[in-house]
């Protein structure tokens, strides 16, 4: 059966998780590629043997999981390290996310991909793309408060991602997350009803 897939993306600190949670509350299934990455790099995760072999045990935290802070510093300092890291993780994430989308029992699936714009393969799998958007100054403020990173560190992360304009240019729908949660909920509720209708049409066409 064809599954209606909604790609969800946004820059760091835009509020993707909040929006994804609201879709789930309304009845959508969520497949989160960032959560899958955490599973793969947890202690005993499926990617850990390959990561340890490639980068050495210095990437391991005390609990045996990948030390994300250490790896983040390394890939920012060495672009080739980023390529090697992504070469291990991305194929596994794509495979698992595809399997989970196909197994979902809901009318449509929210496929949350932080780097959806940067990765054409994910865009091709989505029937719609919804971007969570807010001013860049608000992104920085949120991440500094949430993660304790410096402003410069947050700006470096943002510089490695697609720009706000690039994300908006591929969006079918936009959730503006610059205010109260109730404002976000109203936007998500409207999109939820639209996606249910579109998913129903896809289901009828595939029968």
Question: Which key features would you list for this structure?
Answer:
single chain, 207 residues, alpha/beta, five-stranded parallel beta sheet, 59% helix, 13% strand
Task: Please provide a written account of the structure.
- This protein has 207 residues and is of the alpha/beta class.
- It is 59% helix and 13% strand.
- It has ten helices and five strands, in the order E-H-E-H-H-H-H-E-H-E-H-H-H-E-H.
- It has helices spanning 16-25, 33-40, 48-55, 68-77, 79-103, 120-125, 136-147, 151-160, 164-170, 181-206, and strands at residues 4-10, 29-32, 108-112, 128-133, 173-176.
- The protein has a five-stranded parallel β-sheet, sandwiched between helices.
- Helix 2 (33-40) crosses helix 5 (79-103) and helix 4 packs across helix 5 (79-103).
- The chain is globular and about 50 Å long.
- The model has no long low-confidence stretch (mean pLDDT 91).
């Amino acid at each position: 059966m064809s599954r209606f897939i909604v790609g969800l993306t946004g820059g760091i600190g835009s509020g993707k998780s909040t929006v994804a949670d609201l879709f789930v509350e309304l009845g959508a299934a969520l497949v989160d590629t960032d959560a899958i990455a955490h599973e793969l790099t947890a202690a005993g995760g499926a990617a850990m043997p390959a990561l340890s072999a490639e980068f050495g045990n210095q990437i391991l935290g005390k609990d045996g999981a990948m030390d994300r802070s250490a790896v983040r510093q390394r890939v920012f300092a060495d672009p080739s390290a980023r390529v090697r890291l992504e070469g291990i993780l991305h194929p596994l994430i794509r495979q698992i996310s595809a399997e989970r989308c196909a197994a979902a029992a809901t009318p449509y699936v929210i496929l949350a991909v932080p780097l959806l714009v940067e990765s054409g393969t994910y865009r091709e799998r989505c029937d719609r793309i919804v971007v969570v958007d807010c001013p860049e100054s608000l992104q920085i403020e949120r991440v500094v408060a949430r993660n304790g990173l410096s402003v410069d560190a947050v700006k470096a992360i943002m510089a490695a991602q697609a720009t706000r304009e690039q994300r908006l240019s591929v969006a079918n729908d936009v959730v503006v997350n610059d205010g109260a949660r109730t404002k976000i909920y109203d936007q998500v509720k409207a999109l939820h009803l639209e996606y249910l209708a579109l998913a129903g049409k896809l289901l009828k066409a595939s029968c």
